[in-house]
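Hi everyone,

Forwarding the result from last night's run.
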Amino acid sequence: MEFAWLLLFVALGGLRGARGLQEVDVFPSRGGDIRDFTVAARWVYVVTGDYLYQLNHSLGLLHSLTQRGEYMASSIRFNRASEGGTSTFSVNTLAPLVERNLLFTCGALNSGYCETLNLTDITQIISGEDFELSPFVPKGISVGFVVDVNGKSYILAAAEGMNETRFGDYPKKSRIRLHNTHDGQVGKLLSAIDGRDSPEIVAHAHGVQFVDGFQIKSTIFIFSNLNYDAPKVRLLWFASKTSKTETLRSLRGATLVCCEGGKARQRLVSSSVIPGDQPVLWAGIFTDHDVTITELAVYDVSPPTEAVTYTDPDFGFKQEPWKGDVPITLRPRRVLLRHRFMTSVLAVKLNNWLIVFIGTGDGQLLKLTVDAKLQAQCLSVIWKAPDDRRVFPKMHLDPVGRKHVFVAVRDKLMRVPVSQCVQHSSLQSCWNARDPYCGWCGALTRCSFEDECPSSLWLSVPDDLSQRRMLSHSFQEDAEGKITLVVFTHLKRGGAPANFSCRFDSSVGVLGGLGYKYPECTCLLPPVIGLRVSVTLSLGEVDVTEELNLLNCSGITGAPTPLLCSQCLAAGCGWSNGACTWTRSGALNMSICQGLQTGVDSLPEIFNITPSEMSFYGKNNAVLTGRNLGHVIGVRLQGHLDCSAKEASVRRNTGASLTFHIPAGDKGRVEVCLLLPDGGCHGNASLTYLSAPVCASISPDTTWASGKRRMNITVSNLKFVNEVIHSHTDERVTFSESSDQSLQFESLAADRDPFSSTVTLRVANHTLACPTAIRYLPEPQFTDFISAPAADHLRLTIEKKSDELQMAPEDLRVKGVQGGEDYDCVITKIERSSGTDFITCVIQISSDAEITAVKIMYGSQTKVLTHFDYLKLLLLLLVVPLIVGTGVGVYCWQKRSLTARMNNLIEVLEMDIRNDIRQGFVDMQTEDSDLIENVGAIPFLDYKHFAAKIFFPEGGSLMTACLKDISQDPRKMEKQDDGCGRLAQLLREPLFLTSMVHTLEEQKSFTIQHKCTVASVLTVALHRDLGYLTEVMEQLLRAAMEQPSNGQHKMVLRRTQSIVEKVLTNWMSICLYGFLRESAGQHLYFLVSALTQQIAKGPVDSVTEKALYTLSEDWLLWQAQDFTAVKLQAVFMVGGDGQLSEPLEVEALSCDTVDQVKLKILAVFKAKFGFAYNIPLRDIRLELEQGPGVFVALEEVDRSSEVIGEVTMLNTLRHYKVPAKVTVKVLSTGCHPPLVSQSSVKDDQNFSVKYFHLIDPDVCEDQGMNPERKKLKLKEVHLTKLLSTKVAVHSYVVNLFRGIWGVGPGKAPPAIKHFFDFLDGQAARMKIADPEVLHIWKTNSLPLRFWVNILKNPQFVFDMDKSDHLDGCLSVIAQAFMDSFSLTDTKLGKHAPTNKLLYAKDIPQFKQEVKAYYNCVREQQPITTAEFKDFLLEESRKHDNEFNEPAALRELYKFIHQYFTEIEQKLEHSGAPAELKEQLKQVKNQFDGQKSCSWD
């Protein structure tokens, strides 16, 4: 259950779904629920039942101290034990004293006990004392904090009393004392002594509960609940005097009454002082016996100033008389909020605003915005738990930055951001948030906190949050009839001073302004009816423009309906006497329209909404019934004081009922009304949002592969579950509710085992993962049965092979077969042992009946067991020896005649194998690794083509379309793709982009190929803004890593199964292209060249491309015949008169085909001259010199070619008997040779002709012909060629690997450092302590996702062709590369694959280098946000204008168009602002209406 809650919490609170959001930090404590926590200096202290923790302000664990151990009463010592211990120090009070670097912890340990700890390191225990500073029982309630009394620090302890007696003493009563904070004070540390006395305030009766306390200047405040007689809330004041005694004797008291006009609330739940000067304002949450009914009120708790003698009736100094004066009564200055089940409060001042943070009993953190007049303006939810977990009564503001609130929920402490300003991408969105924390920073051009906008204009919300528009306008008519337009801005100006100006543009020209003074501008209107005016207000560097369609106020006429009234006021006119008029005599308040009669004859009424309760994810297809619904156009939902209302469109309307989707919301009650076309909202109903379902467990958690096993899921709020989903199939799961907290279903079948299938619950449009996956295991194996007679029945015992299925009786049905009839066998028990399980069942049948078979049914399967026929077995045992004896006789008779011939063949075979082994040994000992002499200039692809191959590895028309054609007129292209501009702008809205991505991935028809396409066109479309692409990518990665389905953290980023994973691949390629060209690319090209040359050193089969020298066993030419080296003198035709060039020495092999010789000649030509011979291979002809001036053409196939059956052997140098040092002439011809390679043969019209080269065809052949080809060849003998090839290229492999994971000069590329830091931060935020997880994340994101792709595909980087054989060799190297990043040590045996064995001894050294690389990157100086943004900006600038963004946008819109409805619904359920949804519709209209952005 806890794990499920944490998964849901991460999804709900840890990530809020927008660009660059601040995250909720979580500290999951151990040892029970949180008892108390406090914030002091740079640290946070948390105490649970068994542990005390010291955290930093980001909730990172610094120190922990167990509270379990052994209490030594004789020496008053508490010896902590790491495990066990009979005593627990139950701390009730945490009191930090920052000035002396001390933390006092007090509570119960046998009796009252206190410890003094080092504030910097709580594991340093300074002292322990027996003191009843706080209650001596584990669950006692107390208030304890440090106060200043006449310049001396004391701990004020107000402890709850207990009703039982202890050691014969009087019953304990609640007391207030002042305790010393160091030994230099009278009575030493923690003593309450003052001189010879021990002053204290004692409650006169039992049942006093202290709630809160604090000190302001010289006054100490204590709040308590009196739970006897007539319950009430008491406030006590103490004045700081010269001593403890005088301070406690200064007691004054008051009774707090809550609240006016309603039922009295006589119990204080939580409180918070409101920062500020006089008067002292204080906020408290009050309730009565029904704790779910709560009110938040503000009081003036300033202490009385008159000097009078006062005796309190409920509290007295020591044992003074009980009777006293009547305390003064304090009543609220304002009741801010009536809300269900408030549990904690924290008040913060922000400029002129009061921000009140409120915790609730159903697991929400609310933010209430209150203006300077103590009027509540706006209530929002900034965090919510998935279930009903009560928020701890105390909350603290993070003193570092004051932008986070520390909140405790059960065993978890959270650091919640007070606001998410960065999620608002525009000035309008920032202003619409109605959040005083957020304002638009002119210098940063983004929504930010005010302190993030230094030396710049900061525009925030007005003091009146009821304003709904940034600019409003009105008219004024003077006595002469002239009309003046007045424009008023509701942007509050803050930060640095800024100039203010206005401009009025209209269809008749620029209008003259009469003047402007912030926040108002005026201009004189010309006598034009229906004038359109564009108003631009400039505040420093920020411009705000609004288009106004100015109407003649006198011309707005008609029946006085709310619609006409609202149109009048929206036009800037006034409303007077039921008509629209100029504002000189008219009202401007929209509320006046609400009292008018609607134009609809009968107003809509709501009878019922089904369902009336739903989870905070909302509900699809809710049904509303009522009357007069025909004109309803929408449904509005709004909670009390909600900052904005939610509206849902009507999906189906019959007049008596309508269907709509209830959008996602926050827990609590919302009011519902129905929208009419005139803007009015009528009808009255309510809906209640509750917590989401939480999947706790699945039982059983295993099933057999054929499925149909009955499974039970324990889940809260079961009624909100719409569907159960198995991750391995799209088949729907049918389920039923077996109880209020359990649902039952049958597992679905799987086509494989073993594996695990994740189970998720669909709630509205969201899926929630269960913490336990279902393991699919092989089918149960039933082996035998035994029947045994009993008194009146027959008992069967069925044997089953032991497995992990843990089958229960309800999983099985058994029938016994007797005489062709089935009899039910009732299972009585299942016994399990190490190897065999025994299932016992009883058949009500005669005990002498003979059971011939047993039918075992489970799921959809039926297994039948029968007894074995021993007669058949006996017959079989007699016949088999006869057959074997006959065979042995025949073998002995033939053996004598074959022995002589076999001995001769074995001698020949042994000699051949000896020679092959000796040659392999010679090759390994004499192998020369210096392969590369001159590779010429490295043919790097330019960035555009490199990126295109990464983005679109399949190539095709889409890749071509996304590359910008240099011959295309840019002006024409921009004009042609103008319709795509709106989509480009929409993609800059993070909420839309993330919602679109999530929506697409939720569609079952959206394939992996589609995901890769969308990721790549998104990369192209956002290539000019890599900074934004990075932010969105990181946001999507957080969501993917933290979603419940990713409970297996080590599997994250392993495969490209989502859009963001392909985006990550593209992003890495973009950012590392420079590093590739400047460093690693050269090593890669040298390796590829070395491999190519090494392969060419030995025979290569021209048909299959297999070679004698290779790294891959699959490509090993072990059938190769003997060969010799043949040095040729190649001359080229130069000029047109038959002149020949100087000869080039080319080393070929006797087994080379003609085309292979051509390739080697061209390779030598390029190595010598540095450039390629520019004639295609098929246009080159070779002629062999057979005498002075006599040349014979060399062809792949000619009349002399050897033919075996219908298979023709390609001609080789051996076939032409070419001697060494012979001259070969290279010339160009228009005649193509009949064969280039096997692949071209397959494409030729003469496909029926078959060819072979070095691998013999599978046809009959005369044994006397070519006896050398009939020698027996063993593949294992030639495996040494793999090792000799490895030795030859090893230095190039090592150089490449170290070029990749080497850090120099001094630091890794910026992208790698930034992304690794991102992963480090994500692991820390998710509290993942396993270092293997972080290592695997980094490995999956960089080596696996980028470098392996480059290693296996050098054609992505260079202008070259990659053969299949080269691909096989590179795959072996890539495997060794990835093995170097593995954390597991694999033990290899003789049957291990050769590609693993080849680099087995090198891998340990590589692993050490990889670990050093990761450590070096982690310890490298972090790259600042500004530096990385500059890097991304420079990358965008360098490759600007390389891609055709409109083509990418058109391709992307195909998917938007296909799933438009689903995306629109996603935005609606995500609470997207109306302007964003309207922008999406505009994009659709633009694409649908413009031919330039159409598609086939």
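The chain has a mean pLDDT of 83.

Cheers,
N.
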